[in-house]
Amino acid sequence: MTSTRTAPFRADHVGSLLRPAPVAVARAAHLAPADLRPVEDAGIRDLVQLQRDTGMKVLTDGEARRAFWHYDFMGMLTGLEMKPSTRSLPFKTEHKTPPIEAHLTGPLDFPADHPMIEHFTFVKGLVQAGEVPKISIPGPSAIHFRMEPENIEHAPYNDAEVLFADIAQTYKKAVQAFYDAGCRYLQLDDIFFAYLADPKQREQRRALGQDPDWLIDQYARMLEESIKDRPQDMVIGMHMCRGNFRSSHVAEGGYDLAADAIFNRTSVDVYFMEYDTERAGGLEPLRLLPKGHKRVMAGFITTKTGELERPDWLRAKFDEASKYVDLDQLGIAPQCGFASTEHGNAITEDDQKRKLELVVNTAQAIWGEN
């Protein structure tokens, strides 16, 4: 699908940042909301300044008020509850994610008082001239992909078509609500398109009676239905990766199976694509990006380790990518967030800062702008 919008800058980041120590301590102490809020506010001000100091012009709250990149948002929807579980997510690490799962308990809706609207407006109040506030929320597919069949307590949602329709309407309402709050750059973390390229993940879906290729198609339809009516001045970003928890991952596989769906059957403007290891496959799928205003923020810089990528290696990666897509339709961002959960990746705050600086410096070196 054609698009007349584009990313506001060449240098960007996925959104989450290592939680400042006071925030981590306060959250671990389970402070009352009234006591926790000022600690988070102060931490977010520091994170915004960190981004500004590195030269970043896209500013987020670092997801500092969240435990998970997706569960917090989902649990704040009407008709969805996060409940204790005996299972953790299957990351390739000895660490276990907190055992909670999503349950559909009634008709889905986006409530007018969803807390993340206020999360966004707080950051919006901190930006300066030439900066753009952004918020990242889980994409529509997260509700379906993270929903165990036995956790569907609202009987109508046993019909996937009914569930997909209500998810799309809920997200359409969310998109408009963020716009009304002043958001002009909204990112949807729709990572499960990448998961559905992994042979093991595909087999798991088949075991549930779900055709993974049909899911890719349905997820694209659901995403497009959610965003197609947004105002002309609202940019939509989309992030894809293969899992990120304490520097570990879940899935493997390239973008080949999903590239046409995400590039040509949605009006997404900006694609944040993990490309830091061979697990993400080759760059060939970029050839399917339609010519025009759409842009891929190539994730050659990893957030999983502190080792800094060499500028000459990054330049070579962009030279390779330009064989498949016009260099003018590329930008750069890290492959994922630095802390997709509040636990954070196995890096230091100094590593994080140097990585963000590298993003900005690479953009300046290649395009003369960031």
What would your notes on this structure say?
With 370 residues, this protein is of the alpha/beta class. It is 37% helix and 14% strand. The protein contains 12 helices and 10 strands. The longest helix has 22 residues, at 33-54. The radius of gyration is 19 Å and the shape is globular. It starts with 20 loop residues before the first helix and ends with a helix. The model has no long low-confidence stretch (mean pLDDT 94).
How would you sum up this structure in a few lines?
The protein has 370 residues and is of the alpha/beta class.
Largest sheet geometry: 6 strands, parallel
Main-sheet strand order equals: 5-6-7-8-9-10
- Name the poorly predicted regions: none
Q: What percent strand?
A: 5-15%
Distance between the termini: 26 Å
Individual helix count:
12
- Mean of residue pLDDT? 94
